[in-house]
Amino acid sequence: MDNPPLAPEALAPRLAEVYVALGPVYRRVARLVEQDEQVSGLSVGVRNVLDQLRRDGERTVPQLARAQDLSRQYTQRMVDQAAADGLVELIENPAHRRSRLVRLTPAGKKAITAVLERELALLERVGGDLTAAELDGTLRVLHHMDLALIALEEDDR
């Protein structure tokens, strides 16, 4: 094997480099999304709710909150804002009488599609001759980092 897995003592400092690199990238993306709010009218929180509904379909507020690792209260405020703007609707949930499902409206589908098209146009400007294998590796690393953090949170409970 030409590229064996790193031992934990070698892996940890390399993962720390990933955290250091990820912070500024995340903040820049958040700023771009916030700037886009002036064009799209969608806050970062509402944008995330709409995108999650687009990807995953109807969800309850607690399901939306868990998937984004956000508080239920914050997510409820984002859903309420999206509903007030006509971007989502709350429908009966056959599995639970008190927790309604959140569903995209046609206006919500149109809004999130337009935002994603603008975002993809920006992402097409990323250079570096990146390969699918490199992106697969990046996603694998981030997934394992996330799983480790989830385990730490559960240990602290």
Automatic annotation (TrEMBL):
Gene3D superfamilies in the cross-refs: Winged helix-like DNA-binding domain superfamily/Winged helix DNA-binding domain
GO biological process: response to stress
A GO molecular-function descriptor: DNA-binding transcription factor activity
Native source organism of the sequence: Brachybacterium paraconglomeratum
The protein's name in its UniProt record: MarR family transcriptional regulator
HTH marR-type domain: residues covered: 15-147
One Pfam family here: MarR_2
